[in-house]
Prior knowledge:
The chain has 108 residues and is mainly α. It folds into two domains: 1-30, no CATH class; 42-107, lambda repressor-like DNA-binding domains (434 Repressor (Amino-terminal Domain)), CATH 1.10.260.40. Helix content is 45%, strand content 4%. It is built from five helices and two strands. The protein has helices at residues 42-52, 57-63, 68-76, 82-92, 97-107; strands spanning 5-6, 27-28. It has a two-stranded antiparallel ribbon with strand order 1-2. α1 packs across α3 (68-76) and α2 (57-63) crosses α3. The longest helix is centred in the middle third of the chain and has 11 residues, at 42-52. The radius of gyration is 18 Å and the shape is elongated. The two termini are 29 Å apart.
Amino acid sequence: MGFALFLNKKVVVNLWWQVIVNVPRFFITPNTTIEMSKEIHIGKLIRNKLNEEGRSPTWLAGKIPCTKKYIYKILEKSDIHPKQLQRISIVMKFDFFAYYSETVRNEI
C-alpha cells in the first residue's frame, strides 16, 4: 500500500488504481498533511453575494433553473461541483472561482 505524489512529474499511485498528475512543487507521502491557510465555504460566499445584490435564493433558483430547496442546500455546503459553480457565476455575473485561485496563489 504505497502512495507517492510528485508534482511536475508523472505520478503513479499504487493502491487499487493509478493516477497521472502534473501540478507544480508538491510532494506528498501517507504521513503528509496539507492545511490550507484559508478555508473556503463557497455556500456562504454565494449567500453573501446574493445579500449584497439584494437577491434571494428563490431568484437564483429561477435563473439556474432548479428548485429553491436545491439552492438552500448549496448555500449550506462548503464545496460545490465546478459545473454548478460555473452556472452560478454566470447567472450572478461574479467569478466565484477567484476565491480558489487566490487561495492557491497564496499557498504556492
